[in-house]
Design a protein that fits this description.
- This protein has 383 residues and is of the alpha/beta class.
- The protein folds into 2 domains: 196 residues, Glycogen Phosphorylase B (Rossmann fold); 159 residues, Glycogen Phosphorylase B (Rossmann fold, 3-Layer(aba) Sandwich), CATH 3.40.50.2000.
- It contains 13 helices and 14 strands.
- The strands form 2 sheets. It has an 8-stranded mixed beta sheet with strand order 3-4-2-1-5-6-7-8. It has a 6-stranded parallel beta sheet with strand order 11-10-9-12-13-14, with helices on both faces.
- It is globular.
- The two termini are 32 Å apart.
- The C terminus is likely disordered.
- One of its GO terms (biological process) is lipopolysaccharide biosynthetic process.
- This is Glycosyltransferase family 4 protein.
Length: 383
């Protein structure tokens, strides 16, 4: 079976979608005998220069194509030149590729599925435009896809109406060996945050929480590791200084996996007060390391807690109670740390990429066994 995964960003770009696709395609190639390949854009957003047109990343053949326009909706019609010969197209995220391949379906007639990866509501930017688009254009595009796979239960709620009748939920997995059991063995008051430096991550809110914690106990420290996105490391330093924690926060730009594992060994806690996550990859990876999560009250994080995660949920509109809970938990770690560590590792172990990859292959087999979808253009007014 030849499957082409299509996404706007892939390695060496760093992020939840990129990491998810790398693990999925690798598992499909190495474990399941699927000829999984990747097509993506030829540059990393926010970085100068072009990437090679052809490449191999971790054993996965990669094709990169030119694009123009906005990073929010990059225009790359050359995708049509590279999809022949594949049994199935697996489109990742709701963006130009999702719409363009749907509306050109009468020309290429490939069997397609799509994974949601949070839709396109990660930030409040252009929210009104996004909402109108999601109610008008997206439902039409959906008709060209044999299956829409929600990557989280919050995504499933979001797509329940527009993808009715073809929606299925397969939560993402994590690399179970990447950071397993890496957290500090000595209980401490260090919080690690890692991921892209993006507005929707609300790192400024985490800075405010740390400032509150330090007022009661100056041992609290924060490590922020990741890549520039719509915020830079300098932006974060400025925000931290404004909160009064400039001297107690360390920023580590672009850490390797090995370096990030070393940072986990310095910390007992993981912090993410994000306004939106499709799945919450970093939180699950942090739990696999044995870190205690400090999380916002969004749906993916609530679900983690319901599954048994041991941590603290923070109300972004009222930080004080959460700060008290975090300090109380930190004070108890000498007695409870090992039990909490084991509990969080156990919850994270349920998210395994090999199992996720098998579920996707079953979806591929199901949709390839059925007739191809009708053209989105022809069915838009029929249903």
């Amino acid at each position: 079976m030849k499957v082409l995964h299509i996404c706007r960003q892939f390695s060496p770009s760093v992020g939840g979608l990129e990491d998810s696709l790398l693990n999925l395609a690798r598992s499909q190639r190495q474990k399941l005998g699927v000829d999984a390949q990747v097509l993506t854009l030829d540059s990393v957003f926010g970085r100068p220069g072009k990437l090679p047109h052809r490449d191999v990343v971790d054993g996965i053949p990669v094709t990169r194509i030119p694009w123009r326009g906005s990073t929010r909706y990059p225009f790359a019609p050359d995708v049509l030149r590279h999809i022949r010969g594949f049994d199935l197209l697996h489109v990742h995220a709701i963006d130009f590729f999702f719409d363009f391949l749907a509306w050109t379906w009468p020309l290429h007639r490939r069997t397609m599925i799509a994974s949601t990866h949070g839709g396109f509501f990660h930030t409040g930017a252009l929210r009104r435009v996004k909402e109108v688009w999601f109610r008008t254009i997206t439902p039409v595009s959906v008709h060209a896809y044999s299956r829409i796979v929600a990557c989280s239960y919050s995504d499933a709620d979001m797509f329940a109406t527009v993808a009715k009748g073809r929606l299925q939920t397969i939560e993402n997995g994590i690399n179970q060996t990447r950071f397993r059991d890496a957290a500090s063995r000595t209980p401490n008051r260090t919080i690690l945050a890692f991921g892209r430096f993006a507005v929707h991550k609300r790192l400024g809110l985490l800075f405010e929480l740390v400032a509150r914690l330090r007022r009661d106990n100056p041992q609290w420290k924060l490590i922020v590791a990741g890549q520039d996105s719509n915020l830079t490391a300098d932006d974060l330093r400025q925000q931290a200084r404004a909160c009064g924690i400039g001297d107690s926060m360390r920023i580590v730009p672009g850490p390797s996996d090995a370096a990030l594992r070393d940072l986990m060994a310095e910390a007992s806690f993981f912090g993410c007060l994000s306004a939106h996550e499709g799945f919450g990859l970093a939180a699950v990876e942090a739990m696999s390391a044995g870190l205690v999560p400090i999380l916002s009250t969004i749906t993916p994080f609530v679900r983690l807690m319901q599954q048994g995660a041991a941590g603290v949920m923070i109300d972004p509109d009222n930080l004080a109670p959460g700060a008290r809970d975090v300090e109380a938990l930190a004070a108890s770690l000498p007695e409870t740390g090992e039990a909490l560590r084991a509990r969080n590792i156990d919850v994270a172990s349920r998210y395994d990429w090999n199992s996720v990859a098998q579920e996707y292959v079953r979806v591929y087999q199901q949709v390839l066994g059925h007739s191809r979808p009708r053209s989105a253009m022809l069915t838009a007014g029929a249903e």
